[in-house]
Structure formats: C-alpha cells, structure tokens
C-alpha cells in the first residue's frame, strides 16, 4: 500500500487525498465523473496504487457528500474552479517537473472548461461528446425508482449502488452553452490530449468521436470495456493509463 494523506483547501472549497511519495516531482491529478466520489468507484484508487510508486497522485471530490453517502453535484463552472484550485495548490506545494491529468466521463468536460496551462498531458476516458441534459439523464436513469428529474428545483437520480445524487437547477442552467468538441480541441492547443473511447459504453452509448480523430494534438484510442472499464476490462485500462502517463 502506498502512503495517502488527506488535504483540504478553503478556496472553492476542496477536500481530497494525495497518494504516493511527496518528494516526487511527477504529479498526476485525477478528475472524476458525474455524481460519484473521488475514487471514481474504485477506478482511481486502483490507478493511484499503480502510479503512486514513483509519483504523487491527487484525488479530490467535485461533489458534496452527506451523512447517508448521497451526493450533490455542483455546476460545471464551480467544478472547473475546484480543479484550478487543486492545480495551483499542487504547483505551490510541490516541486513539480511533470504534471498530468487523467479524467473520466463528465470530469473530461471539467478539464476542457478549465483549459489549464503548464500541463504535460491529459488523458480523457469515456468523454462525453454532448453536454449534459435533462433528456439524457432521463434516458439513462429515468427507469430507476427514486429518480425525479425536474426543470426547476432539485432533481434526484438513483444510482446503481442505491445512493442518490441531487442536481440543483444551477447545474442545468449552464450546460446548454457547453460544446465538448470545441473544449477538447482548445485543450489540444495547449497540451497533448489522449481520448480513450470505451467501446462497450453503457452509460454514454453511440458516442461519435469521428470529429476528434483529425484534430492536431489529439490521439484517439479505442479500448474494450464499459463506461467504468469494470470487470475484465479494468486491467487493460490500468495498463493503458500507466503506459500513457509514463510515455511508453
């Protein structure tokens, strides 16, 4: 087991944990997806174990978590500000020589909105090709008892693990102006971007990545696995992430 240390930032505010050797000059920041915790349902803790042997790996929450373990999401612009706060903290606290970001699902949009500079590479996994919408959420979660998506007020989504995710109306208010392809293309003007499509994605099926394949600075990769690269696909995903981060 690698060392892990909690941290909090008053700016935004942010809470999270740092895995690995604090003397390392190589840092990987992990940006999780919609409504889940910073461990991204085990994806990120497993990745931190792989990368934390000679790197610092930073996990943090975009969501507020109540005593029942239910989550409340923040608007994407607030999530972007949280990511920027974490990146500033990392640069100010550690002697960083190499900085990478790994993002998953909606966390890819957050990185695109932040468009950070001085980042060596960004890996976007199962990235959305359309902005979040009430129609998409209804299609994905609407059949689950306990899900209520409303145009005004607080929406509630029942997750596969039985937990609830609450969505404030402010979240929907800004999503209409988000254009993912433009965000990813702009990000590629600043850093090397790898986009990994989950070929059996069950949460965001039928995603069309063709517009990204010819954009300079973007490397497109297809990988077998569902949205979370769960089960037998996890090992292949972990190996790919290590390969991309280490540049092998």
From TrEMBL:
Gene3D superfamilies: alpha/beta hydrolase. SUPFAM superfamilies: alpha/beta-Hydrolases. Residues 28-229 form the AB hydrolase-1 domain. InterPro entries: AB_hydrolase_1, AB_hydrolase_fold, Caspase_his_AS. Pfam families: Abhydrolase_6. It comes from the Bacteria. This is AB hydrolase-1 domain-containing protein. It comes from Candidatus Roizmanbacteria bacterium RIFCSPHIGHO2_02_FULL_43_11. The lineage of its organism: Bacteria, Candidatus Roizmaniibacteriota.
């Amino acid at each position: 087991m690698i060392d892990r240390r909690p941290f909090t930032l008053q700016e935004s505010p942010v809470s999270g944990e740092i895995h690995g050797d604090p003397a390392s000059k190589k840092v990987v920041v992990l940006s999780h997806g919609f409504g889940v915790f910073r461990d991204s349902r085990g994806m990120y803790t497993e990745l931190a174990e792989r990368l934390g042997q000679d790197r610092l790996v930073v996990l943090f929450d975009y969501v507020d978590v109540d005593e029942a373990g239910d989550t409340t999401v923040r608007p994407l612009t607030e999530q972007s500000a949280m990511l920027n706060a974490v990146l500033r903290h990392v640069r100010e606290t550690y002697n960083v020589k190499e900085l990478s970001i790994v993002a998953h699902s909606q966390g890819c949009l957050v990185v695109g909105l932040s468009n950070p500079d001085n980042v060596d590479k960004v890996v976007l996994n199962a990235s959305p090709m359309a902005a979040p919408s009430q129609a998409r959420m209804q299609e994905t979660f609407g059949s689950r008892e306990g899900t209520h998506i409303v145009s005004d007020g607080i929406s509630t989504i029942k997750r596969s693990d039985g937990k609830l995710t609450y969505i404030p109306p402010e979240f929907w208010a800004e999503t209409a102006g988000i254009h993912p392809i433009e965000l990813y293309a702009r990000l590629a003007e600043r850093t090397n971007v790898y986009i990994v499509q989950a070929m059996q994605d069950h949460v965001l099926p039928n995603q069309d990545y063709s517009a990204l394949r010819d954009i300079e600075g973007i490397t497109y990769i297809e990988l077998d696995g569902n949205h979370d690269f769960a089960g037998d696909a996890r090992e292949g995903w972990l190996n790919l992430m290590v390969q991309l981060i280490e540049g092998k």
